[in-house]
Amino acid sequence: MLRTTFQVLAWTSILAIVIITDGPIGLRPVTHLPGSVERFFALLTVATLFTLAYPNRISFIGLSLVLAVFVIEFAQVASFGRHARLRDAGVKVLGVFAGLAVGCFLRAGINLIRARFSGDPKALPKAANQS
């Protein structure tokens, strides 16, 4: 159930990024944060959700999201009033890598909690099993 929730959230978030990035400027939310901060945290969130949704596909997720960043960024060339910038893509790629790390960390925590409450001492990592 939790994995399905993460999958729905991950795909919804990437769809929202595409619409906000390449859609009409009026659809873009206003946060009063610098654009680089918005871009970084948007892609950090997307990468984290995909990592939690598909924990055995981290490399594929990373490569796919980096490719998606460049495709989405440079699709702005076709959008009236929008502009593609390599710097913006770079900030988004950093967000992807940070999101992969956050997702792996959270997944490890989820696995540890599940192992702790499963009642099976062999399911716990050795360090946690020695208590």
TrEMBL record:
Species in which this protein is naturally found? Afipia broomeae ATCC 49717
Q: Which residues cross the membrane?
A: 6-25, 60-81, 93-113
Q: What is this protein called?
A: VanZ-like domain-containing protein
Q: What keywords tag this UniProt record?
A: Membrane, Transmembrane, Transmembrane helix
